[in-house]
């Protein structure tokens, strides 16, 4: 099938689906649930009514705050609730389908102690497993490194999620690699979510509304990655009044402006953040040989939305972030300039076909770029790499009945990958590596049905069909280098096409209102890959598409969980076990050496992996003291024919034990304390085990792959937030946040390296192991304000 | 160039980090015999047999002796011809006149100590008086019985190629007017899969190697092309690396370039070994496992077909 036909088929299929559902029998109450203060939609807010027979019927607001509930004619008390907000009960006499838009007001509970933004017993009642939602207020209450509130690092504190390394914002979910997480910011893929070589994430906390992590049982609307989804949504912008938020911290400052363009109808948000840590050092650097050396990052968030009517709403959001590293060395007359970063733009159109059919159409552009420029006298090298996507998708929420909700949609992406393309100039001579850009189409259709079979039994079934096609222009290099025999593919010509059927099933059995058992199965395909030779995600890491040489990765995940709430949902507890099977996993071969002019793919080896484990999670979300405790026991293995003599070995991120504790204590209205403690088994690594002599030089021989562990990692952080004026009538509010990172100054090993000293002939050759630790105790203070 | 980036990153990390020496509990490695044996056209085969040692711990020259495997039975054969190598200890070699010691030092790649003596080692080679040298186009099997172990390997001496032309070009920066870049023309054979290693030497100094002394013909297959020939350095000596001048020859140097063709396994050994040497200590790079062609042990049994190119400076 030609690609154009596929696209046409996709469009026709959703239109026909649309037309099939256009009639309703009972009456429907539908509308939007928003925050009274700023008009932000309340994602996941709940709507429920108690029927005469005592049964509860309810619905949850989708990501745009839209809900739809179907009821027979009659009188009802409708409850609108959202954690941390006052519940509104509305009495209605339902005689026809009605639209009710509701605004909830933040209740007595202070925002800081809102740990989740979910329906009270959502964790027990939904079929979702391995899904955690974190509101930005919860994220802000966690002590932060150098006071930089970080969405990704908050997610790292959840069970099943591991940090890639100290202070690193790369994450590993249930034994999957960092490239196996779908990181989204308002539907746009963020290919590199890290600033400063991954020490901070790219999300400005003032512009972010919250984040959802899905580590298992991915809904069919998501795809393209085999491990997890991190879906970050930006605030929409206050459509009631002008608002200014900001903060001044140790290494960066933030300012976010938002307000109505037309009250209650449209709003905007502009957020900016920039670091200045190295700017401060400029006077010293300017006197040295390193004049002009600097490093900074900044990001810009933009959002605007317009409510045309109850039926149509338009959102425009954008992100632009850059890291810029400049290194000058006067002594050897060299200069390095290295900018990198993401840019995304998202246009979304919400349309209500009826009170039961909600459609969202999204157009996304996203771009990740990395450039490296080195100059020394008359010699210079310039290199760049990156990935750019154009994406269009349509998602429909179809509220067939209270017991049955359908979601279906279509997603298309055009990818452009730029691997290392570079130019070197010596004097007047220029060398250019062949530009090996790669192009690909990625398509997916999905349908998902949420079906309440009975009050106890709920079933979610989904199917996603994905397709990936590498397309020309492309020069296939049978030898893997830009020389010799080549096969040319013309623009648009299919090079290789892959199909992926992705069934997903999740079910819940409610034992009673407070406890349930859930099970899930999901299959995922992943067509774009990032293979890193180092432990963290670096800006130099290259994304490559599935191609003639690289098969798509796919994974199967089975999970089973027990969910239990206590004391009117004040305490939540869950235990989940999972088994994950991963195929076509990619690593560099152990003797891979990247040569110039060589396709990076030729250095790959392929194998399989699995991961299994137990995750325990306990959370308290009410009262003065709240927080959570997570524990993970896991095993992650890889088996590659060409690695470790074909024997299975632990993955780099195999971590036996992982504990995280996060507590917030509200002393009074003005003062709150936060503390976190994390413990993790040390990362697996390969150790040099022997030394031998070749050519009278000591040579290192390595032991089994990843057979050793660096020492266990543990650390405690502490924070104190003081808000002198929290009275609601005051417009200007400010707070001081004191964070202490690594309270007991643990010298956690970041990496181990080896030093060989002396020489063989002189007879004093000695090898030493050196442990490098990064962050000692670091106190920091941040001042935040809101106006 | 990304290595440079990693270096910068490394420096950055070191600036903000704190280091401490730690002791790592390492399991003892399996006892292995390390082979370093070569056979070159018109040169008798020779083999060093050593033992591996635990990664940590000091290697002492006075103790070097203990790393050498003595009393091994080593046979090199072509299928029709074979020879049993004989063990020569440093004591015997050190009895030779200095000139011969220097010649042997060059042949075996053994650095002499300060008193111009061979270090305390032993070498297995063809017994005096036996005529057995490498022949181009032949395959050589190695069979070693030592310390109760049997080690085998096979190598091949490919057909050699010489530079068809050698010349020098001035350093691109006129400041360095006494330095020149040596260049040569190489004609790669038509079939893919030719592997090269080269050694450089100026005047009467020892042979040197650059960091990456091997290359293959993936890019150049069947082509006649000019190639830069940088001057190397002595691997086992401390070199102050200055890349403004590194690789350049002096305008008055007599430049020797020993170009060798090797087989694939031999190429892979040096390629991985040299990469491992270059990456050692970099926490961001991954380790490279060195590919050996020895069954039952580690190391290399490599054939060389060499040809010498000489460039004489203009008077």
What's the overall geometry of chain A?
Answer: globular
What portion of the residues of chain A fall into strands of 2 or more residues?
over 45%
Mean pLDDT of chain A: 84
How many angstroms does the end-to-end distance of chain A come to? 57 Å
Alpha plus pi helix count of chain B? 4
User: How are the strands of the largest sheet of chain B arranged?
Assistant: 7-8-3-2-18-17-13-14
Q: Report the radius of gyration of chain B as a whole number of Å.
A: 21 Å
User: Portion of residues in helices of chain B?
Assistant: 10-25%
Secondary structure tally: strands of chain A? 51
- Which shape of chain B, going by the Cα principal axes? globular
Topology (elements, then pairings):
The complex is a heterodimer of chains A (787) and B (315).
Chain A: H1 3-20, E1 27-35, E2 46-50, E3 56-60, E4 66-71, E5 74-81, E6 88-94, E7 98-99, E8 102-104, H2 122-125, E9 131-135, H3 136-140, H4 151-155, E10 161-163, E11 171-173, E12 181-185, E13 188-189, E14 194-195, E15 200-201, E16 208-214, E17 228-234, E18 243-248, E19 252-262, E20 266-275, H5 282-286, E21 294-307, E22 312-329, E23 334-354, E24 357-376, E25 379-401, E26 404-426, E27 429-432, E28 438-452, E29 457-471, E30 474-476, E31 487-489, E32 494-512, E33 515-526, E34 528-530, E35 543-545, E36 553-566, E37 571-588, E38 604-620, E39 625-640, E40 649-650, E41 657-666, E42 671-680, E43 684-685, E44 688-694, E45 697-702, E46 708-709, E47 713-722, E48 733-741, E49 751-757, E50 766-773, E51 778-786
Parallel strand pairs in A: 1-7, 1-8, 12-17
Antiparallel strand pairs in A: 1-4, 2-3, 2-5, 5-6, 9-16, 10-11, 12-13, 14-15, 16-17, 18-19, 18-51, 19-20, 20-21, 21-22, 22-23, 23-24, 24-25, 25-26, 26-27, 26-28, 28-29, 29-32, 30-31, 32-33, 33-36, 34-35, 36-37, 37-38, 38-39, 39-40, 39-41, 41-42, 42-47, 43-46, 44-45, 47-48, 48-51, 49-50
Chain B: H1 2-16, E1 18-22, E2 33-40, E3 43-51, E4 53-54, E5 73-77, E6 82-84, E7 86-89, H2 90-93, H3 98-108, E8 122-125, E9 139-146, E10 149-156, E11 165-170, E12 179-187, E13 195-202, E14 214-216, E15 224-228, E16 249-250, E17 255-262, H4 264-279, E18 298-311
Parallel strand pairs in B: 2-18
Antiparallel strand pairs in B: 2-3, 3-8, 5-6, 5-9, 7-8, 9-10, 11-12, 12-15, 12-16, 13-14, 13-17, 17-18
């Amino acid at each position: 099938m030609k690609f154009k036909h596929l696209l046409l088929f996709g469009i026709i299929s959703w239109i026909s689906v649309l037309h099939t559902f256009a009639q309703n029998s009972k009456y429907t109450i539908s509308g939007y649930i928003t925050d009274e203060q700023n008009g932000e939609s309340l994602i996941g807010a709940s709507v429920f009514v108690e029927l005469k027979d005592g049964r509860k019927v309810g619905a949850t607001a989708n990501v745009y705050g839209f809900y739809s509930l179907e009821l027979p004619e009659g009188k009802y008390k409708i409850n609108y609730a959202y954690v941390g907000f006052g519940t509104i009960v509305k009495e209605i006499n339902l005689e026809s389908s009605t639209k009710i838009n509701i605004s909830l007001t933040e209740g007595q509970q202070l925002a800081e102690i809102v740990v989740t933004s979910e329906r009270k017993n959502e964790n027990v009642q939904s079929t979702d497993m391995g899904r955690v939602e974190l509101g930005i207020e919860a994220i802000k209450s966690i002590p932060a490194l150098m006071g930089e509130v970080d969405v990704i690092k908050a997610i790292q504190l959840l069970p099943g999620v591991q940090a890639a390394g100290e202070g690193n914002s790369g994450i590993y979910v249930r034994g999957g690699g960092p490239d196996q997480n779908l990181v989204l910011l308002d539907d746009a893929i963020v290919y590199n979510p890290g600033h400063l070589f991954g020490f901070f994430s790219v999300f400005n906390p003032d512009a972010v509304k919250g984040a959802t992590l899905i580590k298992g049982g991915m809904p069919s609307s998501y795809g393209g990655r085999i491990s997890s989804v991190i879906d970050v949504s930006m605030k929409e912008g206050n459509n009631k009044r002008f608002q200014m938020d900001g903060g001044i911290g140790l290494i960066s400052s933030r300012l976010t402006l938002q307000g109505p363009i037309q009250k209650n109808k449209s709003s905007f948000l502009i957020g900016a953040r920039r670091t200045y840590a190295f700017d401060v050092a400029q006077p010293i650097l300017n006197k040295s040989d390193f004049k002009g050396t600097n490093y900074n990052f900044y990001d810009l968030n933009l959002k605007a939305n317009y409510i045309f009517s109850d039926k149509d709403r338009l959102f425009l959001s954008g992100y632009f972030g850059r890291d810029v590293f400049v290194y000058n060395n006067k002594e050897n007359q060299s200069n390095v300039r290295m900018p990198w970063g993401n840019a995304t733009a998202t246009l979304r159109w919400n349309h209500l076909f009826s009170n039961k059919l909600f459609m969202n159409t999204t157009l996304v552009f996203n771009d990740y770029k990395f450039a490296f420029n080195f100059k020394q006298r008359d010699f210079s090298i310039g290199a760049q790499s990156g990935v750019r996507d154009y994406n269009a998708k349509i998602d429909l929420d179809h509220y067939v009945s209270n017991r049955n909700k359908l979601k279906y949609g279509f997603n298309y992406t055009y990818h452009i990958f730029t691997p290392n393309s570079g130019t070197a100039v010596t004097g007047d001579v220029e060398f250019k590596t062949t530009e090996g850009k790669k192009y690909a189409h990625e398509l997916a259709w999905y349908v998902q049905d949420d079906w309440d079979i009975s009050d106890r039994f709920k079933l979610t079934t989904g199917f996603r069909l994905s397709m990936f096609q590498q397309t020309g222009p492309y020069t296939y290099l049978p030898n893997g280098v830009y020389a010799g025999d080549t096969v040319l593919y013309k623009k648009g010509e299919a090079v290789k096409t892959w199909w992926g059927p992705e069934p997903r099933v999740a079910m819940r059995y409610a034992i009673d209102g407070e406890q349930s058992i859930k099970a899930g199965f999901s299959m995922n395909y992943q067509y774009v890959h990032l293979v890193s030779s180092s432990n963290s995600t670096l800006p130099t890491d290259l994304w490559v598409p599935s191609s003639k040489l690289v098969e798509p990765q796919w994974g199967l995940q089975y999970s089973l969980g027990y969910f239990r709430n206590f004391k009117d949902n004040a305490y939540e507890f869950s235990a989940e076990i999972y088994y994950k099977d991963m195929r076509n996993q990619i690593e560099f071969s152990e003797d891979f050496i990247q040569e110039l002019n060589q396709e990076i793919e030729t250095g790959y080896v392929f194998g399989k992996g699995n991961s299994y484990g137990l995750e325990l999670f306990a959370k308290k979300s009410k009262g003065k003291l709240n927080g959570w405790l997570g524990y993970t026991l896991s095993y992650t293995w890889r088996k590659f024919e060409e690695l470790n003599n074909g024997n299975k070995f632990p993955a780099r991120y195999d971590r036996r034990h992982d504990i995280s504790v996060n507590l917030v204590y509200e002393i009074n209205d003005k003062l709150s304390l936060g503390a976190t403690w994390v413990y993790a088994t040390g990362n697996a690594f390969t150790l040099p085990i022997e030394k031998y002599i070749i050519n009278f030089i000591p040579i290192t021989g390595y032991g089994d792959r990843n057979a050793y562990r660096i020492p266990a990692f543990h650390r405690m952080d502490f924070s104190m937030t003081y808000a002198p004026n929290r009275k609601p009538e005051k417009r200007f509010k400010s707070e001081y946040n004191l964070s202490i990172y690594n309270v007991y100054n643990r010298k956690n090993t970041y990496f181990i390296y080896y030093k060989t000293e002396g020489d063989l002939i002189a007879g004093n050759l000695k090898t030493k192991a050196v442990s490098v630790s990064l962050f000692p105790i670091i106190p920091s203070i941040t001042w935040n304000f809101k106006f | 160039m990304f290595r440079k980036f990693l270096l910068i990153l490394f420096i950055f990390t070191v600036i903000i980090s704190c280091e401490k020496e730690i002791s790592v509990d390492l399991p003892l490695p399996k006892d292995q015999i390390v082979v370093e044996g070569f056979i070159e056209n018109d040169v008798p085969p020779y083999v060093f047999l050593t033992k591996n040692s635990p990664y940590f711990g000091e290697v002492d020259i006075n103790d070097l002796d203990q790393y050498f495997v003595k009393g091994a039975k080593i046979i090199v054969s072509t299928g029709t011809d074979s020879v049993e190598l004989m063990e020569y200890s440093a004591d015997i070699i050190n009895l030779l006149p200095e000139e011969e010691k220097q010649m042997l030092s060059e042949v075996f790649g053994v650095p002499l100590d300060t008193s111009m003596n061979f270090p305390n080692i032993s070498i297995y080679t063809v017994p005096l008086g036996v005529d057995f040298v490498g022949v181009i186009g032949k395959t050589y099997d190695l069979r070693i019985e030592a310390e109760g172990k049997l080690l085998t390997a096979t190598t091949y001496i490919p057909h050699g190629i010489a530079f068809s032309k050698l010349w020098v070009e001035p350093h691109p920066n006129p400041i360095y007017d006494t330095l020149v870049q040596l260049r040569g023309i190489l004609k790669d054979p038509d079939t893919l899969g030719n592997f090269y290693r080269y050694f450089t030497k100026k005047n009467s100094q020892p042979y040197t190697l650059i960091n990456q002394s091997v290359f293959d013909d993936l890019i150049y297959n069947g082509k006649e092309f000019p190639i830069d020939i940088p001057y190397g350095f002595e691997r086992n000596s401390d070199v102050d690396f200055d890349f403004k001048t590194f690789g350049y020859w002096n305008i008055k140097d007599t430049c020797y370039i020993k170009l060798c063709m090797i087989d694939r396994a031999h190429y892979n050994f040096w390629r991985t070994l040299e990469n491992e040497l270059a990456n050692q200590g970099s926490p961001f790079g991954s380790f490279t496992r060195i590919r050996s062609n020895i069954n039952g042990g580690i190391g290399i049994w490599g054939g060389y077909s060499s040809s010498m190119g000489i460039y004489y400076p203009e008077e």
